[in-house]
Amino acid sequence: MNRQLLEKTASALVTPKKGILAADESTGSIKKRFDAINVESNPENNRLYRQLLFTTPQIEKFISGVIMFDETVRQTTDDGIPFPKYLQKRGIIPGIKVDKGLKDMANFPGEKIAEGIEGLRERLSEYSQMGLKFAKFRTLTMIGDNMPSDTCIESNSEVLARYAALCQEADIVPIVEPEIFMEGKHTMDQSRHVLQKVLKETFIALDKHKIYLKGMLLKSSWAHPGLDGLNKPDSKEIAKATLSVFKEILPDELPGVVFLSGGDSPEDSTSHLDALNEIHKGPWKLSFSFGRALQEPVLKTWLGKAENIKLAQEVFFKRAMLNSLARTGEYKKEMEGVQ
Fold first, then answer.
1. Span 3-338: which CATH code?
2. Mean pLDDT estimate for the chain
3. What is the structure's pLDDT at 336?
4. Among candidates 306, 270, 307, which has minimal Cα distance to 290?
5. What pLDDT sits at residue 286?
6. Which of 85, 139, 278, 299 is the one with CA 20 to 30 A from 197?
7. Which of 7, 111, 177, 201 is catalytic?
């Protein structure tokens, strides 16, 4: 394990005013995104769309890294440059999603266990040779009747810790993502309690597996009531509840937290991040690792048409810029100035 290299990469991923583009949709996920805009998902269309994102002019001002899917890291630009190499040339760190998705957890109806540990050491060795510098592994915790169970939380925490250890062995920075599912009717208090419990177990497991905390990042959900509920708190409430958990659980050595959007709109996701950074005084950098919140407006503009690429890139640039502002708590002020 090269601790100095891991620490340098982790720090660069949360460098001020930048964040991560999550362009790691699996085959099934990108099909759903493309179905919504009536575009066929196939390797070439997938490549063209990712190329649209990666070649957006000056995007390196706001994007520190890109998480890709296995299909994507093996594809190239129109000029034949592998995507990981192209991104590196622009000063953007290339990364890879390495989990194999979620499966039903045996004996625990409604709960999920993440898969992808088997064969991971060998896959990470190949990805390292391809120039990939960081990886992401996602688990999912559901909130509902008798959920989450302690067994589910502990099992997924163990999986995340084993993944992180294998990453650091390969000198690849692990992004640990214990997502809390936002769908449902749970309250803010329930969400905060589950976030606290999941993060506590995750860091216990990371400690047991001797993870070098300065050489990793956390990808977190916010404390957030269920999307199906009637109560919609403002971003300040979400920020205060989320930070209260972080202050109780997160170790000071952790370089930063990158947030997932989790089903909120692009505007709400950016607003939450902005509110967090407006009041944040802790040791960790708070950044973004958005997929849908960066890409949804881009897809609706592109629609699979070559003549829309330039405009779609302008939309992507703007969304990335707004999230850059949220890194410093300046997004709300900027939007108020526009109105």
1. 3.20.20.70
2. 94
3. 62
4. 270
5. 97
6. 278
7. 177
Coil vs helix vs strand at 179: strand
Cis peptide before 225 (omega within 30 of 0): no
Burial label for 124, CB within 10 Å (0-12, 13-18, 19+), is buried
Q: Enumerate residues 6+ apart whose C-beta is below 8 A from 337.
A: none
With pLDDT > 90 as the criterion, what percentage of the chain qualifies? 87
Residue 337 has pLDDT above 60, yes or no: no
Q: Tokens 């993060």 identify what position? A: 199
Annotated domain spans of the chain: 3-338
pLDDT at residue 184, rounded to an integer: 83
Mean pLDDT of 318-324: 96
- Is 219 noted as a catalytic residue in this protein? yes
Cα 5 from Cα 96, distance rounded (Å): 17
pTM reported for the whole predicted model: 0.94
Q: How far is CA 71 from the centre of its chain?
A: 18
Residue tagged active-site, from 18, 97, 112, 219: 219
SS3 125: helix
Who contacts 307 (Cβ-Cβ below 8 Å, separation ≥6)?
Answer: none
Q: Is 177 helix (H, G, I), strand (E, B) or coil?
A: strand
User: Is 177 one of the catalytic residues?
Assistant: yes
Region 10-37 average pLDDT: 95
Residue 338 has pLDDT above 60, yes or no: no
